[in-house]
Write a structure and sequence with these properties.
30% of the residues lie in helices and 19% in strands. By secondary structure, the chain is an alpha/beta fold. The chain has a ten-stranded mixed beta sheet with strand order 1-8-2-3-7-4-6-5-9-10, sandwiched between helices. α1 crosses α5. The radius of gyration is 16 Å and the shape is globular. It starts with a strand and ends with a helix. The mean pLDDT is 96.
């Protein structure tokens, strides 16, 4: 597979438009977020999402995170949001926080590994936000590395792992945070941190209580 490489700063509009077109066409494109680089595909297209697992060598029982660019995009993806989920969205979005919520029937099983919940986040990186909006769909995106290797924070490391495996790589510079998003399950009576990351436990407790 030929892998296209775009330096976003040279021609941002053209790079994002071409990358978004590939995602809309069912291909996989690597892109920067404020945490690490992600491997993005149309999160509502099961065949496209399968290409992410193939590129990474990722086990199919490992759910993916859906990335959105606007709060309104979450509502078709979930069967309902409780007060804790809404409080976290209001406080930490856009930013490095992923919330786990009840899924809707719109979300393919391959994204959730068959679970009745789905993980969703709204990245704050301008390139990520622009790409998601231009693609016109929620973007499923794990970190852009072969499974078991460190998560990449620059496009060169992505290229080392993913050239020939994905349709394109958007070079948006180095990621600011460098660790994955914090994942919080909001479906349990007491919100539970499933993965520590850019949002700390103390920050969460300040908003939700202990």
């Amino acid at each position: 597979m030929e892998t296209k490489f775009w330096e976003v700063k040279k021609n941002p509009e053209a790079a994002i438009a071409e990358a978004a077109g590939l995602i809309a066409a069912g291909e996989v494109v690597a892109f920067p977020t404020e945490t690490v680089y992600g491997l993005g595909a149309d999160g509502l297209n099961a065949e496209a999402v399968a290409k992410i697992f193939a590129a990474k060598g990722r086990p199919a029982d490992n759910p993916l995170i859906l990335h959105i660019a606007d709060t309104e995009q979450i509502y078709p993806l979930t069967s309902g949001l409780n007060a804790n989920a809404r409080a976290l969205m209001d406080t930490f979005w856009p930013g490095p926080l992923t919330i786990v919520v009840p899924r809707s029937e719109l979300v393919p099983d391959i994204v959730t590994a068959g679970l009745d919940t789905v993980a969703i986040r709204m990245p704050s990186h301008p390139v990520a936000a622009a790409l998601i909006r231009a693609a016109g769909c929620p973007v499923a995106a794990p970190s852009a590395n072969v499974s078991g290797k460190p998560s990449p924070t620059n496009a060169k490391d992505v290229a080392d792992d993913m050239t020939g495996k994905v349709a394109g790589i958007l070079d948006g510079g180095s990621c600011g945070i460098g660790v994955e998003s914090t994942v919080v399950d909001t479906t349990s009576p007491v919100p539970t941190i499933l993965r520590p990351g850019g949002i700390t436990r103390e920050m969460l407790e300040e908003r939700l209580g202990r």
